[in-house]
Amino acid sequence: MSTRIVDLRKGILEKNDLLAQSLRAQFARADVRVSNWVSSPGSGKTALLESLLTAAISRGTAAAALVGDCATDNDARRLERSGAPVRQIVTESMCHLEADMIAEYLDGWRLADLDLLVIENVGNLVCPTAYDLGEDTRVALLSVTEGEDKPAKYPQLFHSADVVVITKTDIATAVEWDRDAALAAIRAVNPAAPIVETSSRTGDGVLELLDLLLTPSSITSSPQLQEAP
Q1: CA–CA distance, 181 with 183 (Å, rounded to integer)
Q2: 3-class SS at 189?
Q3: CB of 123 within 8 A of CB of 42?
């Protein structure tokens, strides 16, 4: 039985990876940057994404979002306030998004008209890590309310991230956030990924993150982004 389960999982992942490769080629042809945001529930992911989409639209960047949740379209309706096109993917209890869902919900969108597409994955630090969605940038988010050792507890996600984002920094002092310990935990599993410290309330770090997502080649080449200050 265990062998059959392993074979089934391998087959599912191989099928997903093939479709993800096709999506990545499609995104490249359209010249649209695509990021996949992964975090635990309550990390402030949606609030930050709303701020980022609003900033993008205000400066003439064509941005859109696909939002994954087990139920409701609450996040999509919230993000629509930014003025960006948004579509909700309801997974009906599935704990992650898969490439076929992305392909289905892209139908009818002209990708060539977009500069940036953000995929907000289902709130989960384990399952989404295994599924490639065709993105060029995987973003792992960590809020100051979650504990500095989260990267050590979920190393697969933080190791696979191209960018690590710290959220809710405006309340860091109030929750006694140990910044040095958090940065050390991130660097222990991912020595090179840029770390962007953000607040959706104050706007800190939002434009820096937007610029980074629009120029993924700068992730490994920009010295000032290699280490958090």
Answers
A1: 6
A2: helix
A3: yes
Q: Please report which confidence band the pLDDT of residue 213 belongs to, taking 50, 70 and 90 as the band edges.
A: very high
Residue 88 CA: distances (Å) to CA of 66, 77, 78, 133, 137: 6, 9, 11, 16, 20
∠ CA 54-55-59, nearest 5°, is 115
User: Residues 6 or more apart from 1 whose CB is under 8 A from it?
Assistant: none
Other CB atoms closer than 10 Å to residue 39's CB: what's the count?
27
Of the candidates 116, 165, 159, 122, the residue with the CA atom closest to the CA atom of residue 140: 165
Residues in the chain: 229
Kindly list the domain boundaries of the chain, sorted by start residue.
Answer: 2-226
Per the structure block, which two tokens stand in for 59?
């400066």
- Supply the pTM of this predicted model: 0.90
Single-letter amino acid, residue 12: I
**C-beta separation of 175 from 199 below 8 A:** no
Whether the CB-CB separation of 120 and 66 falls below 8 Å is answered with yes
Contacts of 103 (CB under 8 A, 6+ apart): 19, 23
Q: Give the C-alpha separation, 108 to 85, whole Å.
A: 12
For the segment 150-180, what is each residue's pLDDT rounded down to a tens digit? 999 999 999 999 999 999 999 999 999 999 9
Fold of 2-226: Rossmann fold (3.40.50)
